[in-house]
Write a structure and sequence with these properties.
This protein is of the alpha/beta class. Helix content is about 35%, strand content about 15%.
């Protein structure tokens, strides 16, 4: 009996981790949890990403389930205090694990999880997700990588309660090989995942600068009221201006460097872009972004 009590205490202690999540009302139907402008570590435990809930009438639609099982559980518990409803669907905007490792929780409560076809190429047989390697075991507890139950290969429309949800499939490489946007015409709202960063410098490691600029320009032309990104608290029509400006200038400067026949090391040192120096993670990300963009545009020119 004593051993059982010790085990129960240990389990309760292990699963007692809390993020302290507080929902922010974005418009009449949307609530979001906004992450910090940081990289994942044992201090934020993955709380550096945006996860949003849409009130569709009789259920919640979740856009990106977040970095862990416990994050998802806490977010749903918190938003349910606003209105107690089940989760009908979870839509994963792309395959970076900070946006979807909460899927396991939503699967456990019966939600249907949707994501891009690129999820079929994720394999964790020989390597754990980076989230597991970088955050605390207490925060990662109960998290099991759970890919979407249905994969999206083209534009689709979901009818959820009284609301039509348009899932827009980006069929070229932008932030990743297969990004999804979630557009809700009745409330003039779009969720863009990591196509939009407006509080820190984006990472180009899996992206294509030309494709990324192209889709952002298309979103800008839609003239929407609410534009929610994967990182950052700006949610009005100006939400994409920072990232679009950064990428456009980056591409222009790298193309000039290539025209001037600079070597890649020279371009990395020369392309400073001081306008964006104050963005979080600039020193960490910018040089890498120049390198990735240089190699990409150099290859396109061959």
């Amino acid at each position: 009996m004593k051993s059982l009590w010790i085990l129960l205490i240990a389990v309760n202690t292990l699963f007692a981790f809390e993020y302290g999540l507080v929902p922010v009302q974005v418009n009449e139907k949307v609530y979001c949890f906004f992450g910090k402008a940081e990289v994942m570590d044992t201090k934020n435990n993955g709380n550096m990403v945006n996860s949003c809930f849409v009130n569709t009438g009789k259920s919640w639609l979740v856009i990106d389930s977040g970095p862990t099982y416990l994050y998802a559980q806490e977010a749903y518990s918190s938003v349910n205090k606003i209105k107690n409803m089940p989760v009908s669907y979870v839509i994963n905007t792309h395959t970076h694990d900070d946006h979807w490792l909460g899927n396991g929780y939503y699967k456990s409560i019966g939600a249907t999880i949707l994501g891009s076809y690129e999820f079929s190429n994720l394999i964790f047989a020989n390597e754990s997700p980076r989230m597991e390697r970088r955050i605390s075991p207490e925060a990662y507890a109960l998290t099991v990588p759970t890919i979407p139950t249905r994969l999206i290969t083209k534009d689709e429309t979901l009818s959820v309660d009284s609301m039509d949800i348009q899932i827009l499939h980006v069929n070229y490489k932008a932030h990743t090989k297969s990004d999804l946007l979630v557009y809700i015409p009745t409330i003039k709202t779009i969720f863009c995942g990591d196509l939009i960063f407006n509080d820190r410098v984006a990472s180009m490691r899996d992206g294509d600068v030309s494709g990324w600029i192209k889709i952002l320009q298309q979103v800008k032309e839609m003239k929407l009221t609410t534009v929610v990104g994967g990182h950052g608290k700006i949610t009005d029509a100006t939400s994409l201006d920072i990232i679009l400006g950064y990428l456009t200038e980056l591409k222009s400067k790298v193309k000039s460097a290539l025209k001037d026949e600079l070597e890649i090391d020279e371009a990395i040192e020369k392309i400073k872009m001081k306008k964006y120096n104050d963005l979080a993670l600039f020193e960490m990300m910018h040089r890498q972004n120049v390198e990735v963009t240089f190699r990409m545009l150099e290859w396109e020119n061959e």
